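Record RING-type domain-containing protein, 87 aa.
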Amino acid sequence: MAQQGIQMDQERLCCSICLDLLKDPVTIPCGHNYCMNCIKSYWDEEDQKKVYSCPQCRQTFRPRPALVKNTMLADLVEELKKTEPQL
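=>
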């Protein structure tokens, strides 16, 4: 049962772009979370349109939102890594 909980936490703490555990997690204005580098790269491809969107819900943003590391999520990812050494 505990293993199921860890698996669910691992899925929730994964980036939907790279499908790996979040690295330098950021939360964008719609509330979805991504690795800092993943969402930067995704938005770099949208630079010409000057409209930036969420890869999950497709909500759009103008201007490009500033990205700030979500320290609480970063701490949760680190805790998960400690409980699952193979991650």
